[in-house]
Amino acid sequence: MAFVSTPGAADANSLTSVEYADAYFAERANATWAALTLADKQSALILGTDYLVATYEGTWTGERASGTQALPWPRREVYSDGYALPSDTIPGRLQMATAEAALRSRSGALIEDQGQRVIREKLDVLETEYAETSDPTKRYPLVSALVAPLLRISVGGGGFVAARLVRV
Q1: pLDDT for 139
Q2: Domain ranges of the chain
Q3: Whether the predicted model's global pTM rises above the 0.85 cut
Q4: Nearest to residue 93, comparing CAs of 60, 125, 132, 121?
């Protein structure tokens, strides 16, 4: 399958382009991203997009701009800071979140299968016990903070915390 980052395309599989991610990480002097091959960057952006779609699907504000688009963005009827966002583009903060998730995908799965929770592990004299309420799910607070204004609900600390109602 080809890498497609065209907003609204029926075969799109990334919410941002390699060029955008390259510029984003160049501004942040990120040598890890710069060292990746084009194919690795494309794969990472697809994984970052998959993570955002799986994590936030159903919570985005507005509606899909077209019934034929493959991804949930672009959207119409989306407002940020009181201003309507264009319905034919991907918001910059969502492209930033995609790039950040893509970078994190290079060090392991963004969404891991969950197995049985470990209550106690003991290896010789070393012992680990997890809190009853510990959540093994990985959290990405920067990614969550970037997408928060684009959601019907707000997020904090990497998790959902409160409902947000916007009347226009």
Answers
A1: 81
A2: 18-109
A3: no
A4: 60
